[in-house]
Amino acid sequence: MTPRPFPVVLSAPSGGGKSTIARALLAERKDVGYSISCTTRAPRSGEVDGVDYHFLPRAEFDQRVARGEFAEWAEVHGNRYGTLRREVEKVMGEGRHVMLDIDVQGARQVVTAFPDAVTIFIVPPSVEVLVARLIGRKSESEEALALRLRNARSELLEAERYQHVVVNDDLAHAVATVVRIIDEESVKRERLPALGDEVDVVVARLVEGLVRLESSKSP
Hints:
Elements: E1 7-11, H1 18-28, E2 32-34, E3 38-39, E4 54-55, H2 58-66, E5 70-76, E6 79-84, H3 85-93, E7 97-101, H4 104-113, E8 118-123, H5 127-137, H6 142-156, E9 164-167, H7 171-186, H8 193-217
Parallel strand pairs: 1-7, 1-8, 2-7, 3-4, 8-9
Antiparallel strand pairs: 3-6, 5-6
Helix pairs in contact: 1-7
């Protein structure tokens, strides 16, 4: 039986490694698709419009907000990011879970728009690792880096709002943990309504059989 697809929300402080985990997961599982986010920031080296992000002018982004096209959007580190509802629905319409690599503000909105979303917060093993990962990017100004470091604390405090927390101390282990979470969530009764109906039928038959057995023993 094929489980009903649901959104998988991955969040983390900058440098937490959520994007790396998302890419590894997408390469490993054919039943998971990616929702391409929109952003007003400029592309980083190697990023491709329509593949990594939909890079939009702020005016166009705001127009889409006004039309209610986003399942979530937020201003993060001076730029706007958002997930289009149609992108999420498109992937789930293909029968695949949809991976959402988004910040903590957006995650709250997605859960409101899609209550069956599974939320996973990725944390680095230490502050030292977090800082090293951010510095290692070498893609931002000192001011932008300082802003991300200041925001990291408030982002980490959001972890308790998530259903699952994964420590990214080893990439392979972190990916395997996220895979296990998706598999476990997929077999929950509320995500498989047809299975619930089947269980009810089986239970009803067992009860009926027990009644007949008791009746046959009666004098």
